[in-house]
Write a structure and sequence with these properties.
The protein is an alpha+beta fold and 370 residues long. The protein has five helices and 21 strands. It has helices at 6-23, 92-127, 133-166, 216-222, 361-369, and strands spanning 31-37, 39-55, 58-61, 67-72, 79-80, 85-89, 168-170, 175-177, 187-188, 197-200, 205-212, 228-233, 240-247, 257-264, 276-293, 298-300, 303-309, 315-326, 329-334, 341-345, 356-358.
Length: 370
């Protein structure tokens, strides 16, 4: 019996070819990633909130006497100083009333002086019993009544002078005027409820905002120091720096928040009453915080971790705990060390020990743009 060796040779050849192909298989492709660096730096501890700008003072200017407006001494929307003339009413009725009151006062003073002299004469005559005690008492009563009349007349003069001063309406505070409700020639009355104009004090200015009541102990802890507050108009604009000026004396039980107010010089007028602002309340600055880009932190079933690039270009997971975030940075603690390169983009394709290829910053920007 003879055996054919051809099938054996063919099987051996196939096995040899498969083994060679297996040995020549290329290594797995490296995963392209972008990286950032863990480092220590000074990071402020900030509370974020949305607030509303409000003036420190608002005054609705109203007339205190009645009369026609003969002059408006400012333009609506103009900045005015305290004591600056705003409106002038027709002063002639008030001048006449003052002159009349002064004339009545002069008459009453003359009458009072005569009554005083008469009372002195009756007192001297009463000592010598030339007049009765009843006549002496009547003279003193007349003198006292005349003195009271003089006091009443002086009050009338003061009131008339005050009314004449009220005919010139001045700005009670410095600030910016709003829209005018009246024009020259309009008759205004002291009983009108609608203001002639409203003045808002905008330099300095306030921003009111609320933060969770859980932050109250930290706010109280640093309140003795100057607590900086930054405010930026919603939608963009120039940030303004001020300081915490007010902490409410009670927590709002409906929202669980505490009301705060910050004062800003507002020299550039960037903050406007009624506008919404993004507020950053800076309690303190951590001078030696360990930070990584916030995009490097991955949440897993066992907690948060980052991928750290090893010297052999492999990725290794390192457990971290996020203490807090500040903008695009995460303040962390855990196995990460300063100087470690952490993956910020491409984590979805990574696993422990896989090799990576670090993309250039231009490639990263192009990838994000696409």
């Amino acid at each position: 019996m003879t055996f054919s060796t051809r099938p054996l040779l063919a099987a051996f050849a196939v096995s040899a070819i498969a083994a060679c192909a297996k040995e020549a298989a290329p290594p797995p492709a490296r995963v392209p990633v972008t990286v950032g660096t863990a480092e220590r730096r000074a990071v402020p501890y900030e509370l974020l909130a949305t607030g509303t700008v409000e003036p420190i003072q608002t005054v609705a200017v109203q007339a205190q006497v009645s009369g026609p407006i003969v002059r408006i001494a400012f333009r609506e929307g103009q900045d005015v100083k305290q004591g600056q003339v705003l409106f002038e009413l027709d002063p002639r009725p008030f001048q006449a009333a003052l002159q009349q009151a002064q004339a009545f006062l002069g008459r009453d003073r003359a009458t009072a002086e005569n009554a005083e002299q008469e009372a002195k004469r009756y007192a001297a005559l009463a000592e010598k019993e030339y007049v009765t005690a009843q006549q002496n008492d009547a003279a003193r009563t007349t003198a006292a009544a005349s003195s009271a009349t003089v006091a009443s007349g002086q009050a009338a003069v003061d009131q008339a002078r005050l009314n004449l001063q009220y005919a010139t309406i001045r700005a009670p505070i410095a600030g910016r005027t709003g829209s005018l409700r009246v024009r020259e020639g309009n008759l205004v009355r002291a009983t009108d409820t609608e203001p002639l104009v409203t003045i808002n004090q905008i330099q300095p200015i306030l921003a009111r905002f609320a933060v969770p009541a859980a932050n109250l102990p930290a706010i109280q802890k640093y309140r003795g120091q100057r607590i900086a507050v930054m405010a930026e108009p919603v939608g963009g604009g120039t940030p303004s720096e001020g300081q915490l000026a007010f902490v409410d004396n009670a927590v709002d039980t409906a929202t669980g928040t505490i009301l705060l107010k910050a004062s800003f010089p507002n020299a550039d007028g960037a903050l406007w009453p009624g506008a919404f602002v993004n507020v950053r309340l800076r309690l303190y600055v951590d001078q030696d915080a360990l930070v990584v880009p916030a995009s490097a932190v991955v949440s897993g079933q066992q907690g948060s971790f980052v991928f750290v690039i090893q010297p052999d270009s492999s990725a290794a997971t390192k457990a971290v705990k996020i203490e807090r975030t500040n903008g695009d940075l995460a303040i962390v603690s855990g196995d990460v060390r300063p100087g470690d390169r952490v993956v910020t983009d491409g984590q979805l394709r990574l696993r422990q020990g896989i090799k990576v290829q670090i993309k250039a910053s231009g490639d990263s920007a192009q990838a994000r743009g696409s």
